[in-house]
Amino acid sequence: MNNLDIISKLNKLLEYSEAKIPYYTNLFEQFSSKIDYRSFSDIPLLDTYTAHKNENFLCANPTEDKENDIFMGALGLPLKIVRSKAESTKMSMQLTLERRKYLQGLIKKPKMAIFSASIKEVTKYDAGTGFLELSLIDINEEKLEIQIKAILEYKSQILIGPPSIIVRLARMCAENGLRMDHLELIEGRSEIMTFEQRQEIERVCACPITNVFGNHEYWVIGYTCEKNSIHIIDEQVMLEVIDNTGRALSYGSKGELVMTSLTNFSMPLIRYKLGIEGILHPPNFCSCQRNTPIIEFPNYKNYDWITTSTGLTSPSAFIKLFRRLSSPRYIDIQKINLIQKSIKNFECIIYSKEEKSYNETELLPIYTAVSEVINEDIDVKFISKNLKEMGSDRRWFLNQIPK
């Protein structure tokens, strides 16, 4: 998309937000002149904590066609994302378009297999849509075997999931002389796929392999091309790189990533800090000739996995924890660190502005949510810390069990 199109979309978003979104109405009153793309870099940055605290003022009045979800913020804070069904459909259509750019001749409704932490069943198949869900809860060799058989049985054409799990699946296929020749595309999500992981998967799956970059707050931000560069989907999202003062940096500079959603008018996130570092390159940086900026991650850290007595579980399984932390009593929390010391032992560090101590009743939802995921009695030690001790690592779940 050219600069004039981006400027037009940005101005439309800013004008709408000032008129319809209470948070931005109040924020833009501070400016002496009308806010537009020329003063865009002067807009104060929005972080997960501020969004969490003002989530009721960040969206227009809900209507019946709005979809409400509670997703995980970068700091382990619950953030309710509101979008209309039309906006969700548009995002889904854009993802389909990205797949078609990568894979010419993709059928209209391909059979998809996707790893998810939202189901407890090892596999769940919808015969009507050909959609196969694969659980990311308590993953072990036995469950992977069941999931491989399902992928083969239903002849899934697109496989979506964390690269670390897809690699384990590929290894098991290699050990058992199995090939997945029916696969037409593999999308790595939640983690950034390494070159070594790609090589292992390619030995078993003779199909294109992509990296998808996104977050819970917006969904898909970038998609790889055939040259393995991650291109920003600039029809829907704008990405900036900033230094530690909040100043926008030029192409080729490393800094913190800041996102602006150009299509979600139900809940605009303008200059929203993602909590990770990256380097943004110009559209002509990649030889594939796609005219969109490219993002790379020099210090990217994939998330840690939860260790249970029977396998590994994605931290996304802690969604109930975030729902239980969404009440006003937790509004002062600016970050949590849930640290797994052993299978049954956890530390939960709570960072709040006043280093507030929470009583046993207030902390019970955290204990309950963790024990439900681990599926046995656990011990959680709660620690309160001040904001100066937060550090630069934005991950909220850390596994410190010795490897």
Element order, helices and strands?
Answer: HHHEEHEEEHEHEHEEEEEEEEEHEEHEE
Structural class, please? alpha/beta
Strand content: 25-35%
Q: Give the termini separation.
A: 46 Å
Provide the helix percentage: 25-40%
Total helical elements: 9
Mean pLDDT: 88
* Overall radius of gyration: 22 Å
Q: Categorize the overall geometry.
A: globular
Characterization of this structure:
The chain has helices spanning 3-20, 22-28, 48-53, 85-102, 141-153, 163-175, 195-202, 319-324, 360-374; strands at residues 66-72, 78-84, 112-116, 123-126, 131-135, 158-161, 185-188, 209-215, 219-224, 230-232, 237-242, 254-261, 272-281, 294-296, 306-307, 312-313, 333-340, 345-352, 379-385, 397-399. The strands form 4 sheets. It has a 12-stranded mixed sheet, sandwiched between helices. A 4-stranded mixed sheet has the order 19-18-17-20, with no helix packed on it. The termini are far apart. Strand 15 and strand 16 (312-313) form a beta hairpin. The chain has 403 residues and is an alpha/beta fold. Helix content is 26%, strand content 27%. The chain is globular, with a radius of gyration of 22 Å. Helix 6 (163-175) packs parallel to helix 7 (195-202).
